[in-house]
Every structure is written in C-alpha cells, then in structure tokens.
Design goal:
By secondary structure, the chain is mainly β. Helices cover 10% and strands 40% of the residues. The protein is built from two helices and 13 strands, in the order αβββββββββββαββ. It has helices at residues 2-19, 206-209; strands at residues 25-30, 34-39, 65-73, 79-83, 89-93, 107-119, 131-136, 147-154, 163-175, 180-182, 186-191, 212-215, 217-221. The strands form four sheets. A five-stranded antiparallel beta sheet has the order 4-3-6-9-10, with no helix packed on it. A hairpin with a 4-residue loop joins strand 9 (163-175) and strand 10 (180-182). The longest helix is centred in the N-terminal third of the chain and has 18 residues, at 2-19. It is globular and about 50 Å long.
C-alpha cells in the first residue's frame, strides 16, 4: 500500500513541476504578410477536447482553437480596444483608425486588429490553402448570410498549443450624425477543409463550422 501511495505522489509531483515550466516565444511568417505568433519548442501533449454545436451536441470534429479575442491597435501599434468571449463590448476612438472619412462623414472606418487564440486540438483535416478569418454582419449567422473574408491562406503550424495571433484589418460603416456602426458582429476562424465537411443548410450556423468564433459589440467614439 505504501508503495502505491509513493508512486502516486511522485506522479503528482512530476505533473506539477511540468505544468509550471515557462515557454519561450517565436514567430512564423505566413503568406500574404500575415504573421502567426506562438510559443516554440512546446511539449504539451495534444488531447481531443470536444466542443459543442449550437444545438448542444458535440461537434463531429474537435475544435482546433479556443479563447479567441480581438485586440485593436492604432497605426503606431498601441492597443486601443479589445473584445473577448466574456466582454464583447468595446469602444474605439475614431482618431486612432487606420483610415476614416473626414469630419465624421458617412464612410468606412478601418482598424488594425489581431485575432488571438490557443490551439487545443490538431486539425481534423489538413488545411489545403490555409485558415480563413471571416465575419458576418449578424450574430448566429447562417451559411447563406453575407460573409466578409479578412484573411485567407493563413498557415498555422500544428502543434502550436500556445497563443497564436493573426493580424488583419476590419471596417465598419459609420456616420457621426447617426451614431451607429454597420459591419461585422461575429468573427470566425475556419480550416478551409474542415469547414466543407458540414452540410449546407439552416441547421448548421457559421459558428458550428468555425474552429472558434467570437461575437462583438463595437462602438466608435468620434470625440476621441
């Protein structure tokens, strides 16, 4: 009995020490000037973690990513806003946009943004051309709803279980007098092969096809 207890304690100690290790970081440049950033030399074993479909059932293919957030930057690389799963609301200063119409006139306001997530599973199917970042103007969008592609052909190595960042730009239609924004309300990271394995019907919303998705509630402050 003592030998069993000692063996369990030794196993527990090894797990605790392993979990406390710090990992160096590195970058990989991917097509179309997109850079995915992730820790290199990571040795965390991959496990298949199921994620849920909108109807509550397990997704037939384990989701590749989790913990998506969008971080917005000004043209100097300073952080100006962030949207997360728990806090999708954010306000962006109009003066910090990459481009915007003058004097609050109606037009597209464009910002630099990075999608950040963590790999939790290997791809169910190897991507053909790479991953896509897409968005819809509504939440819980159907496959038949209009979609915007922000990035495509993105290469994300596997394994890469640490933080992964994909830079792109996003635009909203804005007019000061109306005080509203029209544009993306839900973002998706898709494997260009896995996404084709789902049936094209109203019972499969876009978030079910995506490896990870995020709803956002943006505001633009024209006084800043």
């Amino acid at each position: 009995m003592k030998s069993i207890v000692l063996a369990l304690l030794c196993t527990y100690s090894v797990v605790m020490v392993y979990g406390q290790g710090k990992l160096p970081s590195g970058t990989v440049t991917v097509p179309k000037n997109i850079t995915a950033t992730f820790p290199k030399n990571q040795k965390i074993p991959t496990v298949n973690l199921p994620c849920k479909l909108y109807n509550g059932k397990d997704r037939p293919y384990p989701c590749e990513f989790a913990l998506l957030k969008l971080v917005f930057y000004d043209t100097n690389g300073n952080k100006i806003g962030e949207a997360t799963q728990k806090n999708p609301s954010f306000t962006l200063p109009l003066s910090k946009a990459k481009s915007a119409p003058a004097n609050g006139a109606k037009g597209l306001v464009t910002y630099h943004v990075r999608a950040t997530m963590t790999r939790i599973n290997p791809p169910a199917f190897p991507p053909k051309d790479g991953y896509m970042v897409r968005s819809a103007f509504v939440t819980l969008a159907l496959q038949s709803d209009p979609l915007t592609t922000h990035a495509s052909g993105v290469s994300i190595p596997s394994p890469a279980e640490g933080p992964i960042e994909i830079p792109f730009t996003v635009s909203w239609l804005y007019e000061k007098s109306e005080g509203v924004t029209v544009g993306p309300r839900e973002f998706y990271i898709e494997n260009d092969v896995t996404t084709t394995k789902f049936p094209f019907n109203s019972a499969v919303p876009m978030r079910d096809k995506a490896e990870v998705s995020l709803v956002v509630q943006p505001k633009i402050d024209y006084t800043k």
